[in-house]
Amino acid sequence: MTRHLTRLSLLVAAASVLVPFYAIVAASLRPQDELSPGLGWPSDPQWHNYADAWTTGGFAELMRSSLIIACGVVPIALILATLAGYGLSTMRLAAKGPIFALLMLGLALPYEAIVIPLYYDLKTVGLLNTYWAVILPLIGAFMPFGVFWMRNHFESLPPELTEAAAMDGASSGQILRKILLPTARPALTTLGLLYFMWAWNQFLLALILIQDPSMRTAPSGLGKFIQAYGRNIPLLSAGTVIVIVPVVILYLFFQRHFVKGILQGAVK
């Protein structure tokens, strides 16, 4: 009985993800004058809807901006989260507990509470309307989770690894590079993928801190696209698919590493 309930739950969870995605793809292939597309697959798919959405929505520039922001956030955030997680898990620090508690408070801090102060601060230093206006706040916003993630990974490793390396004369940097980082590939891959998805899907910060429409992220550009073509459901669906496909492809490519990283702590 339990096995059947588990399978049923998995089927329901899979359907809740796949059915909406199928509905969006099917709607994107309908004629543009059709106001209420159904769930059925169209008999004459209008593949040109994707070309129309790509051109009219300016998604080439928007996706380039999203890629620049994501590629700026991910490596810096990974390096800082790894160093902080390593320090908080292996080093003897007097204020280790308060520092970690302060970082964890950042998990409860919403973007809406900081976006207005960020606007004026970035305007003062001259970074408003640049990619750095989104990259730097996202790095800071992602740090609490990243430090928590990497700290848990390093603490799950046997302490004998670092102790043996220290007895052999290895420095802290050598222990991190040669001993701990090779074991952290699944954790780093999962964290990097999460960072990329969060940065790619950023909407609010890009909408407020970047005034140039061509420099905004794809999701924020999609919001403007919806305002302009609110009644053209097939065109809107095509634009939505264009925005989410890169993240889906990236997830499918790193799926095994992602699942391995999620389950690594539980297995150990």
Automatic annotation (TrEMBL):
Alphabetic keyword roster: Cell membrane, Membrane, Transmembrane, Transmembrane helix, Transport
PROSITE patterns: ABC_TM1
Bilayer-crossing regions: 67-88, 100-119, 131-150, 187-210, 233-254
Main subcellular location of this protein, as a coarse class: membrane
Location in or out of the cell: Cell membrane
Topology term for the membrane: Multi-pass membrane protein
Superkingdom: Bacteria
Keyword Membrane in annotation: yes
Domain annotation ABC transmembrane type-1: ranges: 63-254
InterPro entries (UniProt xref): MetI-like (IPR000515), MetI-like_sf (IPR035906)
Family to which the UniProt record says this protein belongs: Belongs to the binding-protein-dependent transport system permease family.
Name of the molecule in the record: Carbohydrate ABC transporter permease
